[in-house]
## 1
Amino acid sequence: MAYDEVLAERIRELMAARPGVVERKMFGGLGWMIGGNMAVGVMRETELVVRIEPEETEAACREPHVHEFGRPGRKPMTGFVLVEPAGVEDEAELARWVDVGAARAASMPPK
């Protein structure tokens, strides 16, 4: 399995209520786009990728189960974090992260 299909379905349900959302296969997983900008995704089998304000990366990574997004040995991608499965077990926590990603993507100029 390339990504967690149960997590993908949970995200799909949360993103469905938003206008202009497009679901796309990317990076061996799934991503949800708003205005052509990635909001959230399921990558690395079980982790949630969330787009955030770049200046909020350090604070987000201090939260439990959250770390920078990037390839090992390379500089992390600015403005994205990974949330481990334990950080989104609770529906309210998943919804919070989806809201963060959706708000950031919607605030960006459309592509």
Note: The radius of gyration is 13 Å.
## 2
Amino acid sequence: MTTDQVLVEGWFPIGSRLGREAAIEFWDALRAGIVRIAEVTARDPDRAREIVERFPDRTLSLVDATSFAVMEREAIERAFVFDARFRVHRFGKNNERRFDIVPEQRG
């Protein structure tokens, strides 16, 4: 699963680094159902704001914070990401839980 915001955020760097065709292939793969695209609900940005406030020492993008909110709402605990912010994010009662990140960080 991913969010519609990740599609929007991913379009530019893929296109600028790999070319327009690669960006279109990425878009088409998402639209074809390679992953489920979760819509950001009206409540998710409010929850994202709470997350940003809870961690004043971290720099979170709106997309990252909203992704955390959606993951909490959908009870998703495993993520395939390369973004280090997902490795340090904590959630749950007293922030004692963390996401299971794939691929595992080495060395």
Note: Residues 4-18 form the longest helix (15 residues).
